[in-house]
Amino acid sequence: MKILLTGGAGFIGSHLSEALLGEGHELILVDNFNDYYPPEIKERNLSAIIDHPRLELVRGDIRDRDLVEKLHSRGRFGAVIHLAARAGVRPSLENPVLYQEVNVEGTLNLLEAARRRPPGRFIFASSSSVYGSNPRQPWKESDSDLRPESPYGATKVIGEHLCRIYQRTYNLKMAVMRLFTVYGPRQRPDMAIHKFTRLISRGRRIPVFGDGTSRRDYTYVADIVSGFLGALRRDFEFEIFNLGGGHSITLNGLIAKLEEHLGRKADFEKLPVQAGDAASTWADVSKGRKLLGYRPRFTLEEGLEKFIAWFKAEGDNE
User: Between residues 135 and 29, which one has the greater pLDDT?
Assistant: First the structure.
């Protein structure tokens, strides 16, 4: 299958790229290598596949409408997998216009191109941030009470609605994947597990916002990739899926596990609760189990062990 993958040089995208090539697909990978974090990290993410004969790397931006149209004009894609986005809840509070331009306008460019040359399916990477402050947990895809707490979360809600509209209006086949706090080798350096591991390893203080009782559903990256592959193998008119670990742990609990794996205690810097942060995330993954065959395989302990092994070998260089 010929697949267009946006954001394919990032943390999740590079793992998915490797999996897609491993399954024999032809891959056109689009990434703009922006400076949200050092671009050389993305270069390293692709080092194992950059010379693969079925990979074409396009260094470009989904905001470039002409580029998106040009890519689609070369032939019909079996699938478009749209991961590219400006990421991060807290940074979106500082620059919401940028998040709107990338996450909404960029998505719209892809949908416009797709409606003119419909792919076999369009798979959109959304986020648990769409649920925001919804108190009913674990969160189910059928719950319409979406309360995003940040511009980032709001852009993902808009993206989901655009996908739904384009499916109904132009008969595109759609799957929306709501991702829950993904971690593992190559995780972005600003994300909690990577950041805390780096700081604890170096004997530096870690920032803890609030009293440490906030909760997250951490999901190992290989499980996320399995969810996307499941959506690629199945036909849906329009479906939304939670891709989470199906469990939740407090920030204090996560730090304790990191201390155990690293063999040293953390030094804390207590800070006020951060605006935009959800108090708790927790995915109900029963729909994905039923319709995608999605079964998270990695416990948090197993995933942390794999992440820390990678960090010690390759990741402690920022």
Answer: 29
The pLDDT-based confidence of 76 (bands split at 50, 70, 90) is: very high
Q: Is the residue at 199 inside a domain?
A: no
Q: Total structural domains in the chain?
A: 1
Mean pLDDT for all residues in the chain: 95
From 99, 131, 152, 183, the catalytic residue = 152
Residue 308 lies in a domain: no
The enclosing domain of 163 has a CATH number of 3.40.50.720
Q: Does 34 score more than 60 pLDDT? A: yes
Give the integer Cα–Cα distance in Å for 28 and 25: 10
Write out the two tokens for 206.
């870690």
Q: Is 152 a catalytic residue?
A: yes
CA distance 236 to 276: 33
pTM (global) more than 0.90: yes
125-158: per-residue pLDDT in tens? 999 999 998 889 999 999 988 999 999 999 999 9
258 inside domain: no
Does the pLDDT of residue 317 top 80, yes or no?
no
- Is 22 in contact with 29 (CB distance < 8 Å)? no
Q: In the chain, count of helices (H) and strands (E)?
A: 12, 13
- List, as one string, the DSSP characters of 107-174: HHHHHHHHHHS--S-EEEEEEGGGTBT--SSSB-TT----B--SHHHHHHHHHHHHHHHHHHHH---E
Residue span of the structural domain in which 160 resides: 2-183+221-247+282-297
Q: Is the dihedral of CA 110, 228, 221, 43 positive or negative?
A: negative
Can you tell me which residue has the tokens 């769409």?
130
| Angle, CA of 259, 260 and 262, to the nearest 5° | 65
